[in-house]
Queue: 2 jobs
Job 1
Amino acid sequence: MYQLEVAPGVTFVEGERRGRFPYGDVLVLEGREARVLVDTGAGEEVLAGVLDRGPVDVVINTHYHIDHVRGNVLAASRSPGAAFWCPEGEKEPLTSWEGFLRFTGFDDPGLDDARRFRSGLGWAPTPVVRELVDGEVLDFGGLRATVLRLSGHTPGHTGLWFEERRVLFTADIDMSSFGPWYGDVFSSIDDYLASLERLERLAAGTSGPRVVLTSHRRPLTVESFRARLPAFRARFEEREERILSMLAGVGPLTLEDLAARWPIYGRQSRVLPGLMKSERLMLAHHLERLARSGRVRCVAGPGGEKVWEAL
Ligand SMILES: [Zn+2]
């Protein structure tokens, strides 16, 4: 197990398979008044190792995705008094399976049906008792963190800013080579871009972070984080250009036909459950945004079906 105390009381613990999906890295925060676990998707063995060293008082879920919450049940069973906190507005997908389907889009009859693979997903209700609001300061006794709402990936997706320790945790804004992910119903490209801008400003400040932690890679220096930002953000535009050139080359296409050309993920040899769902929803968010800026429009095709055309 790889773990690193990046500052007093702030320990990064790498998830199984180096924290890659369907696992994720977690943080252990140790203040005088509370021991806190941030996210629980590290995998059973890693998480049990964390909980073997003592129970936690609080579990914070940065958002409702499975690779961040799958260990909530284990954390609750090993820490019976633990309080579960989540971002404002994300209680529904954490407490209700129907809510989870509504937020992720797995319940759309035309999309992959999550009902079939519920057990594989490992979803279970989380007893959320508090919703965290942007800007509020959490004080664990000599260790404080400011709640940083970083919407876009999901509507409430939340990071933490340990100002006194100069450590920034950006959760799933992870500087991966894939780039930003926004494949749920209430994901938003505009919000994601605003969150990147917010992080860029914070990282550029003279009293900004020294270390940046994410949910899916080992700790980065702030210099490395800043160096990776432009390429990460450029994915939005690259994907948009691919969508536009497909429409310009082939002519008007339905959302389904366009998704089958995989403009976001690239052609897949093996389609994992949920992947086409993500492709279609990310594509839909792009098309809506392109329509708002007048670069595509949605019209009726020959059979009355909705097709998208480049302008
Ligand atoms: Zn996520």
Job 2
Amino acid sequence: MTNEIELLFQDQIHTWPRLARGIEGLARAQTRAVRIDWFEVFIRHIPHRVGSTTAAVDPQSISKRPCFLCAGNLDPEERGIPFSADYTIYFNPFPIVDRHLTIVHREHALQHIAGEFGTMLDLARALPDYFIIYNGPECGASAPDHMHFQAGSRRLFPIEKDTAGIRGAARNYVRNVFVFRDSNRAQLIDSLNRAIESLSEVTNKRPEPLINIALFHRDTEWTVYLFPRGKHRPSVYYTGELTVSPASIDLCGIFVAPLEKDFARISGEDVAAIFEEVTLSDGMFEEVASRL
Ligand SMILES: [Zn+2]
């Protein structure tokens, strides 16, 4: 699958102008590390992400715009690779990381994780150099009306190194996250479904709790990061102080700043405060941890 993706990339970068512009934009992106406690987060300034960061995702705004993931609305040059019976893998024309992919369901149906963990795990196994992500419909997905995942190169993926050896509830990491590691697919899906159910119960949020998920497959084992969220956007977004809206990739340690003025001044303390604010509160996190 990795080879097929590589061939698609070599074709699309020459034939699809919007992707070519995105790849140029990523090449010009500036990245700097900020230290928080014992780990670092990379702040990445990518102007072409401003549309996603500030996307209006309320039902009224969504109903007014054509869905940009539906096959009929794609750029005419855009090509994909089928994955399973239900999905197609495309390049993301607004990349945050190298080889940024969008994996899109063939039907226009709401973003949801129920019944879809198997697809995520299979994607990770088919693409061992990639991480696979899911952004909940109220947690950073800019197309909450159309089921999709994303993927990207694992070459820059700070959380993998930060959490080496950690299993279960990760603490002292400023963002609350559950880490699952398992080689047994069915058992892992069962654990993840139970975690989602516990989060729904504790946060009283259905059909789905507020979540971001990132995972990868290495050797024979999957590692899954489940970020329970307390809220969608931080208060600094609404006050206009910082135009940032963290989703899975940000929580994994690549923090996107589409505006240059934010990139220049954002500090490790700012990032830590935002992570603490948008992930689930310690009290509820510990309540879920005690049930897992
Ligand atoms: Zn659609």
